[in-house]
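Q: Can I borrow your eye for a moment on a structure tokenisation matter? Would you mind producing a protein record, from residues through to fold? Write it directly below this note and I will take it from there.
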Amino acid sequence: MLQEVTLTILVTNRTYEERYLVENGLCIHVATPEGDFLFDTGQKRAFIYNAVQMGIDLAAVKAIFLSHGHDDHTGGLYHYLKTYGGTTVVAHPNIFIPKFQLINGERLDIGIPYTHEELEELGAQFVLTGKPHALSENVLSSGEIPRVTTYEKPDEVYQERIQESYITDPLHDDMALILKTSKGLIVLLGCGHSGVINTLKHAIRLTGEERIYAVMGGFHLLNASQEKIHRIALELQKLSPQYIVPLNCTGARAAIHLAKIFPERVLHCYVGDRLTLEFVTVH
């Protein structure tokens, strides 16, 4: 079990310090005794600039984990490889299926902006699997997340192109990163397209650890109804995470509602924020 974890937000859509850049999407630097990892890469180069400002050496990253195939979580991979060279990249094989979003009747391309071949030529060593995969002894990919709840469903505005047909994207490529610590699980979500409750319940089933120490990332509640937001808050009460860190696509309404219900547990974080969690074992 991990005794220490440091999570640094390199990219999200807000900051309170002018020296940092913001983008839609997410990138979190994960430092553990088992190595450093990147959780998503944001949209372009902002995470590299911000890491330099923070004194973080991205060349030391052991592996990059991509939570799903949308461009605001994968677009920075190309820039990482161009800057630092090759590394292991763990993701679902469906990330390279062309992906789109319907906005006001217009179909916008929101898929990963580079081909598999282009990224491999730059040194990406892909591990593409929908099954759980260990990045280190206590850091693992969730694999595909079963959709169990009735109130968490992917938005129909997302599509994928299969051959020449556009169909609703089931977002099977949505995965989470799970860190096993002596105080319970830390679960990182990119956009939470599978649902935050589905994701946490899957992490518990997968690891056998019932304690959730922290859940952090996008909960995809920006356009959710107040009823859905409240239902998820009630389910989070049952799972009882010690810390809840809503980022990017969670939305202000949901973040505020969660903070009202969990006033001591919700952390409002921004680009540049660093969470150091130390788990001291008392003998």
